[in-house]
Amino acid sequence: MPLYKTITVNKDTSIAIWKVEETEGFLAEGIELSDHCQSRYDGMKSELHRRAFLSIRHLMAIYGYVDKDLFYDESGKPHLKDGNLISISHSHNFTGIIISKSDDVGIDIEKQREKILRIAHKFTPFEEYRTLANTMAIVRKLTIVWGAKESLYKIYGQQGISFLHHINVADFSFSENRTTAEIIYEGDISHYKVDFIEFEGFTCVYAIKDKTD
Ligand SMILES: CC(C)(COP(=O)(O)OP(=O)(O)OC[C@H]1O[C@@H](n2cnc3c(N)ncnc32)[C@H](O)[C@@H]1OP(=O)(O)O)[C@@H](O)C(=O)NCCC(=O)NCCS
Fold first, then answer.
1. What's the confidence (pLDDT) of residue 213?
2. Which residue out of 150, 164, 167, 192 has the highest number of ligand 1 atoms within 8 Å of its CB and is therefore the one to mutate?
3. Confidence label for 41 from pLDDT (cuts 50, 70 and 90)
4. 49 CA distance to ligand 1 middle (Å)
5. DSSP category for residue 134
6. Which of 18, 92, 96, 192 has its CA 20 to 30 A from that of 56?
7. For residue 90, how far is its CA from the centre of ligand 1 (angstroms)?
């Protein structure tokens, strides 16, 4: 099944998620890449990465975009030439985009893995999560926090910000499916709404920057 899920976030902002199950040849059909993207694509060693990369172009097509409507800045952040905002994520066989006409947006898809327990101290004050019922609940929560921080990082676009020291994610319960977060960096404070969904052992987090900042 190609298109896995779409979410209308608000009147200007939408999300689409692809479950990559097709062959590379099937996904490549009808997709024309810019010189920049073609050379990146040709350099990708992993077939799954190439399929994920192509599937993103199919997701863009849902909103009327082709690869040439996209360009990347020197940090690797994607932009749409028409001024609308886009963020992209891929994790194993799931890929997703968020597109907005008006809001700064970020998206991150992550596979839920116990490995995150080992690196948690690098990106969050881990103690907060000790009260959770079982290891899987802790993994799920940490994956959401990680995804939130990746999403904010993608919006902020400033190398040098530390997940641990500059990005705070407010505590939340799973049933809320949302939280808030802030970046405090060099005297600048910005605020974000964060939503998350979980499916098939994956977590998708997306963030929207508050317009009031
Ligand atoms: C760039 C980064 C955000 C990508 O995230 P990821 O989880 O590795 O990979 P994802 O698949 O979710 O995202 C990749 C997409 O992000 C986008 N991207 C890359 N660099 C970006 C940037 N600087 N800003 C915004 N988006 C960016 C691209 O669209 C890319 O996909 P594409 O090149 O195929 O179009 C990530 O590698 C990174 O640098 N994170 C910050 C590092 C850090 O501080 N870590 C803290 C450790 S405690």
1. 72
2. 150
3. very high
4. 14
5. S
6. 192
7. 10
Provide the Cα torsion 29, 35, 37, 41; round to 10°. Answer: 70
- Assess whether pLDDT exceeds 60 at residue 6: yes
Helix (H) or strand (E) holding 79: strand 78-80
Question: What separation in Å is there between the alpha carbon of 131 and the centre of ligand 1?
Answer: 30
What whole-number distance in Å separates Cα of residue 190 and Cα of residue 13? 20
Q: Which domains can be identified in the chain, with CATH numbers?
A: 3-103 (3.90.470.20), 108-209 (3.90.470.20)
The residue written with tokens 């810019």 in the block is 34
pLDDT at 126: 64
List, for residues 76-119, the tens digit of each pLDDT value: 999 999 999 999 999 999 999 999 999 999 999 999 999 999 99
